[in-house]
Each structure stands twice: as C-alpha cells, then as structure tokens.
Amino acid sequence: MKISILQIIIIISSVFLLGIFVFWGMKKRIKRKKGREIRRFNELVQTFIESEEIPVCLKDEELSYIFINGAMEKFYGISSGKIIGLDDFEILDEKTATKERKTDRKVLETKTFVTDEMLWQGNVYKSTKFPVDLLNGNFGVGTYIRSVSERNREKYLKTLLSIGDGVMVVDRKGIIEMLNSTAEKMTGWSAEEAVGKHYKEVFVLIHEKKEGIIIDPIKAVFNTNSMKELDSQVMLVARNGEKYHLEDSVAPISDDEGNVGGAVVVFRDVTEKTEKREELEFNSFHDSLTGLYNRRFFEEELIRLDTERNLPISVIIGDVDGLKLTNDIFGHEAGDELLRKVSEIFKKVCRADDIIARWGGDEFAILLPQTQKKDAERISNRIKDDFSKEKIKAVQGNVSMGYATKYQAEENIANILEKAEENMYMKKTLDRGQNKEDSFNMILETLYEEFPSEARHARKTSEICQKIARKMNLSDEEVIKVSKAAYLHDIGKVALDKEIASKNEYVVDNTWKEMQLHPVVGYRILNAFDHTVDLANIVLGHHERWDGSGYPQGLKGRETPKLSRIIAVGERFDDMTSNRSYRKVISQKEAIEEIKRNVGTHYDPEIVEALEREFVEER
C-alpha cells in the first residue's frame, strides 16, 4: 500500500503536536515542584528571620553561611552582612571552628540531627544541627543554639580542670577561683595556694623583650566584655623564675543577662614551638657555624643600604688562609674552630651596626655604611693583626683582606664589591709564599716543642738515612732528598694526641689505628707546600713492609718508593739505639741483628746490607 504525501504530512504534524503537549506538561510539573521547594525554603528562611531569642543560622553545602537571624547576629556580635559568604574558620577561633566543622560534616554525611556543646565567650551553649534540602538539590546545615543549664556548666568546668592546657578562672575582682593541674605546673603555684589570691600575684606576665609592654588581657576582657587573644610575645614567669612562651586566650564569664562575673584564662606552653620558629628565622639569615649573617642577607642589605645618605660605603672581603690545611691535618672540627675564631675577631673589631657575613666557605664580607676608605683599611689591618696572634692546633691564624669604597651615588655597588674581592686576591697572591712558609714552620715547631724527643729522632734518622744512601751509591740529589724526608718522616704526629704520639709506634694496641694515620697526615702536610711536595710520597710509605703487611697502603716489595724503604730501616735503627720512655736502649750490633731477622718480611735486604756495611766500617 502506497502512502501519499498528504498522509505523511498529517503523521508528522500529529507527532509534533504530541511532543509540544508532552513538553508543556513536563514544564508545568517542574514549575509546580520548583514552586513547592521555593515555598518550603522561604518558610524555613521566614522561621529563621522570625526567631528573636534563639540564634539560628543556615550554611550551604560548602559550609559557608547563607542566612543568619537577628539573634545570631547578637550571639556572634557581627552583622549578617559581614558573615554571609564566610565559613567558621573566618569567624571563630581555630579550635572552635574545627569542632563546628566536624559536627557540620557529620550532619551532611548522616543526614541526621546532631547535638553538641560549645564554649563561646566564657559561656557554655548547646547547639542542635539538622540537614536542610537546598534549592540547588544539595543539602546544607541548619543550626539553632541555646544556653545550657548550671549543671552542664559545672560539667564543663570539670572538663576544663582535666584538659591539657592551663586553665585559670578569676572572679570580677580578679581573685583566683580555680587553677587546673597544668596551670599549677606552669605557674609553680598549687591550686590550694593560688585560690583567693589576685591573679597578678600568680599569673605573672612579661614581654619577651625588655623594652616591650604587655597589655593585661584579663583587664581588657573585663573592660570590653569580649574574648581577647594573648599577645604572641607574652611570657609567663613561674614562681621559680622559669619562663614560658604562652599562646591562647581569655574569655569573659557572663550570666544569662550578659553581666560579666569573671574570666576564664586558657593557655599553653609554646616555648619549644617559639624557639623552633625563632631558630628557623635566625637560620634563614645567619650562618649556622659562625652565627654571622649569611650571603643571602648580606646581598639584601647591600641593596637596602646602597643610598646616598649612607655614603661613603665601604666593603671588606676577607679570606681565611690555611682552612683546607687545618681540615686535612686535624679534621673539620679544628677547621670549624678556625672559622669561629676569626668570626669572633670580626665581631670584636667591627661596630655593632656593621653587616658581617660569612660569604662562602672560607670567605667573609663586611658592609660598612658611612665609612671612609682609610677607616676600612684600619679595620682590615686590625682584624689581620688580631687573627695573626691566634693559633688553632698547629696552624697559624692568617686572613687575607681586601677593601673598596663607594663615594659617588652613581657608582655601582656591585663593582665596589668586586673590586674589594680583587684586592683581597691580589694580597693573597703576594703573601702566598711567606704565609705558606710561616705555616709550615709553625707546624714543625709545634711538633718539636711538644715532643722534644721527636726532634732528636728526626735529626738522627736523617743522618742514618743519608749514610745508607751514600753506601748504596745513590745520586747526590737522592741523598739530599732522603735526608730531608727522613727529617720530616714523623711530621704527621702533630695531629695525634700527645699520649698516643709518645708511645711505641710498633706496638699493636687500642691506639694502633690512630697511630697508623700519621703517615697519611704527614703526606697531606707535605703535599700542601711547594718546597716539600716532592717528599710527600716518600713519607707516606715509610711504614710499608717488604712483604706487604705494612701501612697505610699495604704496598709490597719495590712497590714502595726506595727512599721510603731506606727511612723504614734508618728510623727503626735509631729507635732501638736511642733512649725511649717505653723501652731500654740496645747496642748498634744488637739493633742490626734484630733488623736482619726481619729481612724479607719487614725490610729490603739490599738496604739492610748497606746499613750493616756502614756501621761495621765505622767500628
């Protein structure tokens, strides 16, 4: 059967008309449902507005206030215009807000009524919260608040007595009515002693700074009838003189008519928290080792003080000589002591307002506003002179100084800083040779002053090794080198404890490992100076053995330098034939026989044979 065009048009028109009818029907039902929701919502809002005695509020699904009535405005002491759109954390203290947020979420999660108690401005209230179906299809939270009975207030008071914070309750005249156990510990007063006394006698507050002024928070509460936060810089002085940094608040205690009858003080010890915060603040701008300002702070002050009224501005750059050497010989503790010592001298010489900073590892910088170039020179010279009188272990104190001064406003302060640094490096280069020679002599003098027997042993060992080298037909250059190395072979003992350094280095005991370090330290010392660098490896190997059982590297046979092997024999021969505190002297013949017994294990046979020939011929 064929369908005509007219029939198709009629079918399409019928479907279209049916669709329009269904659409308008659905739209009317949605409108009626929406109207019912609006009326129900408006009725709820009207209930909120009409309640004059009971504080009522409504929060949305995000727990922000969308309605409060007049009673709630009075309860918070804030107009609705300032509350709408805010949440509890923007209105209440953090503790109360956290508690309110917890019960609000419980309402949203369970869709049930939740009751709770809250402390507000010294009074205890009961809050009832319930779910509210909002226009947008989500749920909000409605709340109404009522004052609790005296019995509940007593219950809450007992709770205050048991909490971890310090709690003190005073009457309108400032007489203490209650002190909980935490408050007893912090004030040093027992509740029995404190009750009946004026709070100023027990709760003694001071400002953390001597010149600071404390506003009495309890008196302020009585004057304003509103809660007051304690000053962040307030400290409690306990009965025994101990001081605590405090945190928290004071709230009025009012009756149902709003008359203030006293105050409750809730406080906690935040000393540790305050000290950590202050430590963080200090460390952000200070060097932890020296206590001076750090480079970051110096650079900020350089920009801040670079003004015309501070002209002339002088900058001093100092570089501590011998830090690496000190670290290598005596360890980083001695290096740290060196840096602290020079820091003390910087602070002693400079003015209180001068900016002194640790610029880098061994570099320091001083910023001197309103300081002429001649004064910067005087300060530099005094620092250098004072530090030269110091000695850290066996290292002579020395610091290279450079300075520059800005006189004209248009000069770039960065260029002044760079010029001061260039001058410092120039002086360091010019004094390098003399400073190094002085440092080396100081180390040697320190060793031989503390251990006079080491000086004699060094001379004798040098003579013996020189004779052995000649007997072996070594070149004059090698003879001189072994003589020098032998004289310095025990220089590393300068880093040892005096008692350990005086012991027999061939005896294995609990100090053996420390004794084994002295060839390594000697190597570091000699390697640090140009005139002894070629002796470093020789000294390093003088305790190696022919069979590889020696130290510090465990070298075997000819792996050990020949001159080191000569010193091993020469210093052992002198050790046995000289007076020592740890054993009796033996004859040269006995010493040679003892050394010969260790040929092939401890000593090179060729060198022992040269030693024997030398002393047989002498006899």
TrEMBL record:
The keyword Transmembrane applies. It comes from the Bacteria. Keywords: Membrane, Transmembrane, Transmembrane helix. InterPro entries: GGDEF_dom (IPR000160), HD/PDEase_dom (IPR003607), HD_GYP_dom (IPR037522), Nucleotide_cyclase (IPR029787), PAC (IPR001610), PAS (IPR000014), PAS-assoc_C (IPR000700), PAS-like_dom_sf (IPR035965). CDD domains: GGDEF, HDc, PAS. The keyword Lyase does not apply. Residues 41-111, 153-225 form the PAS domain. Residues 311-442 form the GGDEF domain. Residues 230-282 form the PAC domain. SUPFAM superfamilies: HD-domain/PDEase-like, Nucleotide cyclase, PYP-like sensor domain (PAS domain). The chain crosses the membrane at residues 6-26. Residues 432-619 form the HD-GYP domain. This is Diguanylate cyclase.
